[in-house]
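TASK: fixed-backbone design
INPUT:
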């Protein structure tokens, strides 16, 4: 086995093993008793459903990841990467088109293999636990729209990246970095208005006391927004959520219609205050800046590894190319990305604590924020006691008990000030 193959195989197996340990610890540590904090929200039967949902999702995720790794290893060591490269090179369509065909066929094959898992997750697991509202027609349309967007947006961007690394010399990674950064920023502006509505309907929150309270609160914290939008999340799932997206005139705070139905006015105002807190505390620009830096480092490393013949030999490819190098570097980088996610997730969780504190200090309603978090947790059958390793690897939001403790801690100084 080529030396680089040993390194990459070891890294992939280590990544799988770490995720496996995380899943097993999550299954082991599901508490048998309902935490006292949540007895006003969950009953024993509902808590048992939440634990069963976590078990089912975790086991299914483990099955899916094991299958994915097995397919990758069989394809790799059976010479699939070289065989596919020989096939597409024989079409004589030019290096950029060849690269698009090569990566496109691999993406298509991976999508086809993952489709049964996606179908079962939606119409099996989510249906069994009472979440699914997606019809087969909606599922099929979502899939087709995603493929169309991937081709329309991802295809030209991938072609540009291949051309930069192939034709612009040692600084190709800089040009690629600039273009990808520009696309990332443009999507922040255009996705809320033009892309997200392809999948969901966004309607302004109806006129009434709640809308007036939210817009009045926005004025008090100097948050520039004209509308709060309600998304038809119930079209696909009974789960509830809220999020902030976009910049400038396309800035939006979005509430799922399921959330609006579940929460009181005070609770919804507290949830919106949390989302506004992310904006006021400059979390969104910080995260974008971090992504820009990561992208630059990633392209710099890619430019280095494209010159390493051992990377291509590891996958038994005889003729190095930018498109195979891009793919192989992605496999090499995947375990590194998992490790980088640990500090980045910790940073994101800190942002959630800060946005909670902002909401408490500006609304003086910590009880409403707590209940506004607990109700969706019950509806969504959230895991209340995830293992710390799982939190470190996967959670961009703190576990709910920790958030509630921090909210109550933040409320004490605010109450003293009044």
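OUTPUT:
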């Amino acid at each position: 086995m080529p030396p680089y193959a040993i390194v990459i195989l070891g890294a992939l197996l280590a990544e799988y093993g770490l995720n496996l340990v995380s899943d097993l610890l999550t299954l082991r540590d599901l508490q048998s008793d309902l935490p006292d904090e949540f007895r006003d929200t969950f009953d024993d039967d509902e808590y048992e459903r939440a634990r069963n949902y976590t078990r089912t999702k975790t086991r299914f995720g483990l099955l899916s990841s094991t299958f994915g790794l097995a397919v990758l290893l069989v394809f790799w060591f059976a010479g699939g990467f070289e065989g596919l490269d020989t096939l597409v090179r024989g079409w004589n369509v030019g290096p950029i088109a060849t690269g698009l065909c090569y990566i496109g066929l691999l993406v298509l094959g991976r999508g086809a293999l993952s489709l049964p898992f996606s179908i079962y997750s939606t119409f099996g697991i989510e249906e069994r636990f009472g979440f699914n509202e997606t019809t087969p027609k909606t599922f099929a349309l979502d899939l087709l729209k995603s493929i169309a967007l991937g081709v329309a947006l991802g295809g030209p961007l991938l072609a540009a990246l291949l051309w930069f690394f192939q034709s612009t010399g040692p600084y190709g990674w800089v040009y690629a970095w600039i273009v990808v950064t520009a696309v990332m920023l443009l999507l922040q502006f255009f996705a809320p208005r033009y892309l997200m509505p392809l999948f969901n309907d966004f309607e302004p929150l109806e006129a009434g006391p709640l809308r007036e309270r939210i817009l009045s609160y926005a004025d008090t914290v100097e948050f520039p927004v004209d509308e709060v939008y309600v998304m038809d999340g119930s079209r696909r799932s009974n789960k509830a959520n809220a999020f902030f997206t976009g910049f400038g005139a396309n800035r939006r705070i979005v509430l799922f219609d399921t959330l609006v139905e579940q929460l009181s006015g005070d609770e919804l105002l507290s949830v919106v205050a949390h989302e506004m807190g992310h904006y006021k505390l400059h979390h969104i620009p910080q995260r974008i800046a971090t992504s820009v830096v990561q992208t630059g480092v990633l392209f710099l490393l890619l430019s280095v590894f494209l010159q390493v013949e051992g990377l291509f030999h590891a996958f038994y490819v005889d003729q190095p190319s930018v498109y195979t190098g891009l793919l192989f570097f992605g496999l090499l980088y995947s375990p590194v990305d998992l490790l980088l996610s640990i500090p980045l997730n910790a940073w994101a969780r800190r942002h959630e604590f800060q946005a909670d504190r902002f909401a408490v200090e500006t609304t003086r309603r910590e009880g409403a924020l707590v209940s506004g978090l607990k109700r969706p947790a019950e509806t969504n059958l959230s895991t209340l006691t995830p293992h710390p390793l799982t939190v470190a690897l996967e959670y961009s939001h703190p576990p709910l008990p920790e958030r509630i403790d921090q909210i109550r801690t933040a409320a004490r100084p605010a109450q003293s000030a009044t």
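COMMENT: DSSP finds 15 helices and four strands in the chain.
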